[in-house]
Amino acid sequence: MTNTVKPVNVGVVGAGTVGGGTIRILATNADRISERAVPVKVRRIADRRVEVAQALCDELGLDTIVSDDWNDLITDPEIDIVVELVGGKGLARTIVATALKSGKCVVTANKDLIAAYGDELFAIAAEHGTELCFEASVAGGIPIIQVLRESLVGNNFVKIAGILNGTTNYILTKMSEDGLDFATALKMAQELGYAEADPTNDVEGFDAARKVAIMASLAYGCFVSDDKVVVEGISKITAEDIAAAKELGCAIKLLGVARLAEGKLTAQVYPALLDAAHPLAAVRDSYNAVFVHGDAVEKLMLQGRGAGSLPTGSAVVGDIVSAARNIRLGCVGRVACRFDKQLSVLTADAEQGCYFVRLQGADAAVREALVAAGIAVAELRAAANGELLLLTGDMPKTELASALTALIEKQAICGCGTLIRIEKDEN
Amino acid sequence: MTNTVKPVNVGVVGAGTVGGGTIRILATNADRISERAVPVKVRRIADRRVEVAQALCDELGLDTIVSDDWNDLITDPEIDIVVELVGGKGLARTIVATALKSGKCVVTANKDLIAAYGDELFAIAAEHGTELCFEASVAGGIPIIQVLRESLVGNNFVKIAGILNGTTNYILTKMSEDGLDFATALKMAQELGYAEADPTNDVEGFDAARKVAIMASLAYGCFVSDDKVVVEGISKITAEDIAAAKELGCAIKLLGVARLAEGKLTAQVYPALLDAAHPLAAVRDSYNAVFVHGDAVEKLMLQGRGAGSLPTGSAVVGDIVSAARNIRLGCVGRVACRFDKQLSVLTADAEQGCYFVRLQGADAAVREALVAAGIAVAELRAAANGELLLLTGDMPKTELASALTALIEKQAICGCGTLIRIEKDEN
Question: Residues in chain A with pLDDT < 70?
């Protein structure tokens, strides 16, 4: 690099998977970044494993200063941008807040932090005339944050629905394509390193909930913390549910959905029945995707790697370069994050939708029994295995669940499968 | 709108399909735009059909000044941004150059103009300290330009491949899903208003070529005008070609592809054979999509509406708001367009790839005959109708075509189908 322009200096806290990818991209594609925007230099790295960070710098030929204390980045007046990649909500919160208060721009990939304390941290950034960038916090390499905040700024968002967790999408893909049950597919995901030993966070939808919370907050201008998201995972989904969905020409996907209707904001994670022609239905393996329905853009979908060292690093580097451009041009805070709206967030009890469920042991008279029990029957179809497949009209899920329980008690049906939300997006 | 901040003033030239959509979005979503960014006002519209433009303003309750002379926008010192939506390369070139020279930011949806004169126009913008935005020139509502220039700034682009023309994608979808031949599917597209009376521009790939030229220029930093793009359309694709592709578990899509390999830039439009699992294979009807392979982000795909009043208007409005933010913060020209690289662009003669072709009247000895003719045979498979399906290894298309012609003359085969490029993107 023969560029004589003074670089923008970056300090990275945490040289793990994403930190390593970020540093690697900044080093190996330095010329490209410099040509396209401004030179960016990794001036400091803070990581408890100093030797790991130092080895990376040696491999990449970087003269970066490595230490085990993140405060070294804050106190270094040459550092323009602090990149927080330690994760979690404890130390990370302190690092981000301290860096912002010291007037440095901050880039983070930390969904837990933004979903819990985004309102507080964006306010600190605004107060100190700096900015907090978080592209990598949702869907890894997919640039959904910039697209929502900038490209689609002219849209009212009808709905945002995403496949936001690669582990569960891998499990559902294996269940669908290879006919596996949940436990077997989960085990494969664990063997491949997609799922952790305790898979709760992924399979019960908590990871996706954080990403929905962030997208809902951005799209609707009202901060939604992840504890407000109504969450249902995929651990109850059976091979039979998926086989029945396929008989209907549909796929089951774990979706994170944000919606605004009649002044009420919905932020949910649930397994959904999608027509095979829906773009989200074709998203396979561990890929992530975000489907946006805007009143101007209509239907838009972005699909890509939701995790991984380099894909997530790509998003972090995009943010670093954006902040670097703003620093150079004196327009830090160019795209503000405001959460001024007061919107009520729908609770689980108020959840309403159309549902799909398999019914066992039902005879010809079941339609009347279902209707008598208060179920909005939209369609009843016989499956190849003798079960009946019920598709309901719009109704509260709680009412459907209790009506089915009552029908089982009355022996009108022997049993039923998992209640799965039907996701409709007319083309 | 109770906002007391002085708005950024926009002048729109051309209140047709895209212009109408743009003005409509700016009017109906004015509050949203103002809350998220800065207030934007449509101060002037220039259109020859003054009464049409005036009727739109009346409908939307706008106090916009309507005239039939675009010079009124240039000479109005209150106008900050000129939006060129007249199309074509004649008057539009004059309008854009004049506006830039007068120091105004320009937003355009004009692919013909950018693909032909982008280098000249971006240089004028840089010289006059202003900016030229063109998101809507490629793939309508899909924000691929911002994604390439900003979100993915840290990537070296291995390849960019797009379904960039909705008309041809609609035709190919109908041929594939309903078994129609090209002529019938084209007629349907014409009846629906997707295809024009003279469909050459769409079906022969010239429209897609302009979009490839723009993306190649951005991705590789070397201006590629559309006359450098090697173009092949879909008019030779038959129902038999598509049926054979389906037998192989593949789809045929018209792709615009930009690639950089061994210092040579490839910019092409061709019908391609895609594995059904490829994300581009699932893009149906008149939808557009752009698949990006970056060395950091890996595989990313964006899919959405490639045309239409509001989707394209959404992209124009995104650019207007971006320029408005820059004007307010004094950072106009924040993301520069530079074409400093000198790269040689591959010509049609040098085109090389793996190909798929149906062979008629071939017997068991054909493999030897094919090999003897210099064809790199990767796979030969019997189709249900008795034809042989040939999949080649990497070879020049011209050599394959002449070898097949020679084999037909020698009566080693009776005939063959269309030569279709095999598009490989390992997952």
Answer: 1-4, 426-427
At B427 the pLDDT is 52
Picking from A122, A153, A169, A301 by the largest number of B CB atoms within 10 A of its own CB, the best residue to mutate is A153
Residue B117's pLDDT is: 98
At A150, which amino acid appears? Answer: E
Domain A352-422 has CATH 3.30.70.260: yes
User: Which is the CATH superfamily of the domain at B144-305?
Assistant: Dihydrodipicolinate Reductase; domain 2 (3.30.360.10)
Q: A-chain residues within 8 Å CB-CB of B318?
A: 150-154
Residue B388 contacts by C-beta under 8 Å, 6 or more apart in sequence? B358, B359, B362, B366, B380, B381, B382
HEC profile of A192-232? CCCCCCCCHHHHCCHHHHHHHHHHHHHHHCCCCCHHHCEEC
Sorted by where each begins, the domain ranges of chain B are: 8-141+309-329, 144-305, 351-422
What ipTM score was computed for the predicted complex, to two decimals?
Answer: 0.96
* Local confidence band at B4 (pLDDT 50, 70, 90 cut-offs): low
* SS3 of residue A157 by DSSP: strand
Tell me phi and psi for residue A196, to 5 degrees.
-85, 170
Contact at CB, A304 and B298, closer than 8 angstroms = yes
Taking residue A180's Cβ as centre, other Cβ atoms within 10 Å add up to 18
Burial of A122 (0-12, 13-18, 19+ CB in 10 A): buried
Q: What class, spelled out in words, does domain B8-141+309-329 have in CATH?
A: alpha beta
Amino acid found at A115:
A
CA distance B49 to chain A (A): 24
Task: Kindly state whether A37 is in contact with chain B, defined as any CB-CB distance less than 8 angstroms.
Answer: yes
pLDDT at residue A132 in the model: 98
Query: A29: nearest CA in chain B?
Result: B154
| Chain-chain contact of A302 with B305 (C-beta, under 8 angstroms) | no
Pinpoint the alpha helices (H) of A12-104: 17-28, 30-36, 50-60, 71-75, 91-101
Q: How many pairs of residues across A and B have Cβ atoms under 8 Å apart?
A: 207
Which residues 124-143 in chain A show a CB within 8 A of chain B? 135, 141-143
Candidates B137, B150, B286, B309, partner chain A, best to mutate (most A CBs within 10 A): B150
Superfamily of domain B351-422: ACT domain (3.30.70.260)
What is the per-residue pLDDT across B92-101, written as a single tens digit (0 to 9) for each? 999 999 999 9
B334 close contact with A: CB closer than 8 A: yes
B152 and A313 within 8 Å at the Cβ level: the answer is: no
Q: Which CATH architecture has domain A144-304?
A: 2-Layer Sandwich (3.30)
Specify the amino acid at residue B294. Answer: G
- For residue range B342-378, what is the model confidence (pLDDT) as tens digits? 899 988 777 789 999 999 998 878 999 999 999 999 9
B152 to chain A: which residues are within 8 Å by CB? 143, 314, 318
